[in-house]
Amino acid sequence: MTRPADDLLLEVRDLHVDYPLRGGLLQRRRGTIKALNGVSLSLRRGEIYGLVGESGCGKTTLGRALVGLAPQAGGEITFDGVRLPADGRRDRFARKIQLIFQDPYASLHPRKPVRELVGEGLLINGLASADEVDGRSLAMLERVGLNAEHLYRYAHEFSGGQRQRIALARALVLHPQLIVLDEPTSALDVSVQAQTLNLLKELRRELGLTYLFISHDLGVVRYMSQRMAVMYLGHIVEEGETETIFERPQHPYTRSLLASLPSIRHRKQRHKAALQGDPPTPIDPPPGCPFAGRCPKTQPICREQNPALAPAVGDPAGGGRDHRVACYFPDLPGEG
Amino acid sequence: MATASPPLLAVEDLQIRFHTLRGVVHALDGVSFEIARGESIGLVGETGCGKSITARAILRLVDPPGRITAGSIRFEGTELLTLDRRAMRTIRGQKISMIMQEPKVSLNPVMRIGRQVAETLLIHDRSLSHRQAEAKARDMLGSVSIPDPARMAQRYPHELSGGMAQRVMIAMMLVTRPRLLIADEPTSALDVTIQAQILDLMTDLIAEIGSSVLMISHDLAVVAETCDRVIVMYAGTVVESGTVDAVLDEPSHPYTRGLLNTLPDQVDPDRPLQSIPGNVPSLLAPPVGCRFAPRCPEAGPRCRRETPAAYDVGAGHVAACFLHADGGVA
Ligand SMILES: Nc1ncnc2c1ncn2[C@@H]1O[C@H](COP(=O)(O)OP(=O)(O)OP(=O)(O)O)[C@@H](O)[C@H]1O
Ligand SMILES: Nc1ncnc2c1ncn2[C@@H]1O[C@H](COP(=O)(O)OP(=O)(O)OP(=O)(O)O)[C@@H](O)[C@H]1O
Ligand code: SF4
Ligand code: SF4
Ligand SMILES: [Mg+2]
Ligand SMILES: [Mg+2]
């Protein structure tokens, strides 16, 4: 399905997020954590965009930056045609971008009944009058598979899957356009994960939502997303249509990541550990390609200058028009 | 592969109860399985189904309020459940080792890791001097792919990444050369590229030592890649077991089938994922008969009356389900 380019809901350009690294008795600044080091991506209206990468690569930071919860050190974020202020004062947009966390246990206030958890946003944002609130909340709870009997119960009385549904209802009553789902099913059992993923897909279709879907589970991202990006150490190293990334990855990191994945269908075919070493920390990273320290193909130039995320070339099958790779020596299909 | 000699480990009819304020938790009921010498077995199932408690029972590490209330666990022919504490400690130290999900919890937080490996060496070989043990410990760290072992040996556990700490645990295992290695979610806290490294390392060392393995994981794919056989648990019972190929290609218990169908890597993106209706039952009052009956699409009246035994469905492949019994579910 092709859409006109102006159908972009979100455009992120060269986004930087730095955290100070403090240490010692006086908590002096000892360095900078480059949590996001020049991230660019765009989300089209109505799509599910997957974001994968190893622990600490900056996925959550990107999600938080979109709702103004991470210190933006550079770059710009454009949402629905309007540039968001970099200082995090996003009141006008707060409602339109909602964040759902991994851990439904931690994200819901323990002393508020469901009725209040779901309804309070409506009141705060002036979206409903006091006598409309319960009706609207209930309608949304029913939409996510809960019912009136749940209105006066507290979060701790629900299972993980049910809590995630409450968190969704709480976000959805505000009629957001974009939902950042940060590992929404990682804390759930597989049988419950399936129900939640199905629900997320249905809701997107019915309500015309756009998702940024963060996960470390590549199987889930492949099932959920149309397009996706692979992050490494604060950078996006590859981006494209999900099937292209899985079938014809070009970045050496993406290829190692996929090769490392155990699989039920292709069992005992996993390559011998594709990648040596641990991911480096994003503390004062050296110049050059973020993957240079672990990449089997590193050349001197890789350590000098960071390769830009540029359209993928050389794929005879046609890499998909959105396929972009940040590497001087990408693995072309058919190689290795 | 099954051998003619008696199995290394035989667990029979194991039953574990937790006496809590809210009532008695029927955590395990009638759990039986065997592990042959040199064989690796995966134990899979959703959270709370009893994987860890089964592993801890083998090491007699079930703490109150938990209690082993029935059953037998024989290791190399010896009954472990009645063994005296000293003999049990020897087995724990020398014949059965355990690697856990959070290796840092099992490491001593205030001792440098080189020293920890050296101490383990000293316990096993009294003829070593301290200096020799420390040198050998550095070699062992190198052999589990820890870079710059001399420098890393000086670090404390909290200064290691999860993958490095897991390597240290594997180095310790290499010291003890156990007959049975129990690994409880050894890679669940790690990133996939690190998981691949650890699984390779474990597989190679296990082949070298010839240990048997009980690998616990909630990730079927990890078990599929590393084990010969698999045991599927549900709500404190074993529902199916057999070779990895048999169980994954021809799942015979409705729960195993349901579990495989829910996995996203099994379906095309345009079809909704199948899910298992309902929730895992409370083990305070588990369902009478088959514990899966309230969620099973194929349940019949017999399933709510009787508890299914393990019925043969193929060579070494059994399923605890009346669909495979004479008379069926009626
Ligand atoms: N508030 C903070 N202060 C200091 N450093 C931070 C803060 N939040 C994140 N970081 C650092 O920024 C980097 C990116 O973290 P982030 O949480 O975005 O990673 P992630 O990709 O979401 O990882 P995971 O998969 O483990 O959730 C990490 O090195 C992290 O330690
Ligand atoms: N201290 C305890 N008190 C009461 N019940 C307990 C206790 N410890 C464990 N249980 C019960 O024993 C059952 C088995 O727990 P176990 O830890 O073996 O599950 P598991 O399969 O390892 O799950 P996970 O995948 O979450 O690690 C659970 O239902 C749990 O509720
Ligand atoms: S730019 Fe160089 S170091 Fe980076 S991924 Fe490509 S080949 Fe490897
Ligand atoms: S015994 Fe009956 S309820 Fe249990 S799994 Fe088989 S068919 Fe289903
Ligand atoms: Mg995160
Ligand atoms: Mg466990």
Automatic annotation (TrEMBL), chain A:
Membrane topology term reads: Peripheral membrane protein
Name the GO terms of the biological process aspect.
peptide transport; transmembrane transport
UniProt name for this protein: Oligopeptide transport ATP-binding protein OppF
Q: Which residues form the ABC transporter domain?
A: 10-258
Main subcellular location of this protein, as a coarse class = membrane
A single cellular component GO annotation: plasma membrane
Its taxonomic placement starts with:
Bacteria, Pseudomonadati, Pseudomonadota, Alphaproteobacteria, Sneathiellales
Q: Does the keyword Signal apply?
A: no
From TrEMBL, chain B:
Query: Keyword set for this entry?
Result: ATP-binding, Cell membrane, Membrane, Nucleotide-binding, Transport
Q: Which Pfam families match?
A: ABC_tran, oligo_HPY
Using the UniProt record, give the first listed, main subcellular location.
membrane
Q: Which superkingdom does the taxonomy of this entry point to?
A: Bacteria
Say yes or no: keyword Repeat present: no
Domain ABC transporter spans what residues? 9-260
Q: Does the keyword Oxidoreductase apply?
A: no
The Gene Ontology CC terms held by the record are: plasma membrane
What's a Gene Ontology MF term here? ATP binding
Q: Name one GO biological process term.
A: transmembrane transport
Extract the InterPro entries matched here: AAA+_ATPase, ABC_Ni/Peptide_Import, ABC_transporter-like_ATP-bd, ABC_transporter-like_CS, Oligopep_ABC_C, P-loop_NTPase
Give the subcellular location.
Cell inner membrane
Classify the protein's membrane topology as the record does: Peripheral membrane protein
Concerning its family, UniProt says: Belongs to the ABC transporter superfamily.
Name of this protein: Oligopeptide transport ATP-binding protein OppD
What organism is this sequence from?
Oceanibacterium hippocampi
